[in-house]
Amino acid sequence: MASADEQVVKALAKQARVLRRRVIEMLGEAGSGHPGGSLSAADIITVLYWHEMKIDPKRPDWPERDRFVLSKGHAAPILYAALAEKGYFPLEDLMTLRKLGSHLQGHPDSNKTPGVEVPTGSLGQGLSIANGMALAAKMDGRSYRVYALLGDGEIEEGMIWEAAMTAAHYKLDNLVAIIDNNNLQIDGDVREVIGVNHIADRFRSFGWYAVEIDGHDIGQIIAALRLARGIKEKPTVIVAHTVKGKGVSFMENQVGWHGTAPSKEQAEAALLELAAGEE
Amino acid sequence: MAVKKATRDAYGETLVELGQVNPDIVVLDADLSASTKTANFAKAFPQRFVQIGIAEQDLIGTAAGLAAAGKIPFASTFAVFAAGRAYDQIRNSVAYGKLNVKIAATHAGVTVGEDGGSHQMLEDIALMRALPGMTVIVPADAVETKLAVKAAAEHKGPVYLRMGRGAWPVIFDEDHKFEIGKAVQLRDGDAATVIACGIMVGEALKAAEMLEAEGVKVRVLDMATIKPIDAEAVVKAARETGAIVTAEEHNIIGGLGGAVAEIVVENCPVPMERVGVKDVFGQSGKPDELQKFYGLTAEGIVGAVKRVVERKAKG
Question: The CATH number of the domain where A149 resides is what?
Answer without folding.
Answer: 3.40.50.970
